[in-house]
Design a protein that fits this description.
It is a single chain. The protein is built from 7 helices and 10 strands. It is low in regular secondary structure. The chain folds into 2 domains: 116 residues, no CATH class; 157 residues, no CATH class. The strands form 4 sheets. The protein has a 3-stranded antiparallel beta sheet, with no helix packed on it. It is elongated, with a radius of gyration of 26 Å.
């Protein structure tokens, strides 16, 4: 008789607790999200309502420049609610049957419970599209924060050989060219600090084309393995990058937003290009040329990966992300017969 009484009491308490927990939400048993450091980093967005099996992400909850991520429970835990409150901390990362960003994970994505690291997950990848997507090893869960966060996933900037199948205009490792070098870079000294000091030449960085994601070019972790000339710490103190708008960072898309600046150049050629104006006399330390049209007028075609209406390329027509740009490509008074190669 006593055994039956104990059984009924346990059953009653269990049922009541289950109903109460269901009614009260996740916060009755654990934090929403749990209060450890890594949960706060991945799911610190106040506007997100934690829900088991929900694969929502930051941009869906707060599209207007939040300063933390909001990845809901279903991005890392089972989609099947039957696995909730089963006495085990279940972690499932595979893309099978998943939506949202989890659908971009590998079907072999997993969490190593001993090393406390994820593998095969989109949120720790280089962010490229389709078959060019490359997964990287995640930091250790609740481990110490490491430097060079940008470099760990996609590079700062991305560095690899540029091809039509996998174009790269950031910094082409095969030939050491790309937007990182800026306008009229010095092949002996790298970009010249005097031009930046007097604001007479525009610096090219993450903010130039990803202005909604990054507002300050603070990352100094780039290492030029080709020539060593453009390794940042040759001249700068080692610093990591800062994300301005978390909603457009790790959202499954390549986000482009051009910086609202009029490009400046210290070159000051003999013939002032059309659409540009000159400030001061050529050769003076404070003089420069400036485009009359801001970079916000650029049109980017995601299909053929080309830009048009780019003031810093001087000539009309398209510039492709895989192009290698030479002097004659922009300046019509350079090269054979004064012709450029713009399409």
């Amino acid at each position: 008789m006593r055994i039956w009484v104990k059984f009924l009491i346990i059953l009653y308490v269990s049922l009541c607790f289950g109903i109460y927990a269901e009614a009260s939400g996740c916060g009755n048993c654990h934090g929403t999200p749990p209060g450890d450091r890594s949960h706060r980093i991945h799911s610190g967005l106040d506007l997100m309502h934690a829900a088991y099996g929900d694969t929502g992400y930051t941009q869906q909850y707060a599209p207007s420049a939040p300063h933390s991520y909001g990845f809901n429970c279903g991005n890392c835990h089972p989609l099947n609610s039957a696995k909730h409150r089963n006495g085990v901390v279940d972690i499932e990362l595979s893309n099978k049957g998943a939506g949202g960003l989890r659908a971009l994970n590998s079907n072999r994505a997993e969490f190593d419970s001993k090393k406390k690291r994820c593998s095969g997950v989109y949120c720790h990848s280089d962010g490229e599209r389709g078959r060019n997507l490359r997964y990287v090893r995640s930091p250790r869960w609740n481990g110490k924060e490491r430097r060079s966060r940008c470099q760990e996933c996609h590079g700062s900037p991305p560095v690899y050989e540029s091809t039509k199948e996998r174009p790269n205009g950031h910094f082409n490792a095969a030939r050491s060219y790309g937007h990182l070098l800026g306008i009229h870079w010095d092949s002996v000294n790298g970009h010249t600090k005097e031009s930046f000091k007097y604001n007479t030449a525009t610096q090219m960085g993450c903010t130039t084309c990803h202005f909604e994601t990054v507002r300050r070019d603070t990352d100094m972790t780039f290492v030029d393995t080709k020539t060593g000339l453009f390794t940042c710490v040759r001249c700068h103190e080692m610093r990591d990058g800062d994300i301005y708008n978390y909603s457009v960072h790790v959202n499954g898309k390549v986000d482009l937003a051009f910086e609202p600046v009029n490009v400046r150049s210290k070159a000051q050629m003999m013939y002032l290009p059309e659409g540009w104006k000159r400030k001061g006399l050529k050769g003076k330390i404070e003089s420069y040329d400036e485009a009359m049209v801001a970079l916000t007028q650029i049109k980017y075609d995601f299909m053929d990966r080309s830009c048009s209406n780019v003031s810093c390329h001087l000539q009309p027509g398209k510039v492709f992300w895989y192009d290698k740009i030479n002097c004659a490509d922009c300046h019509v008074n350079f090269g054979a017969a004064g012709q450029n190669k713009r399409r």
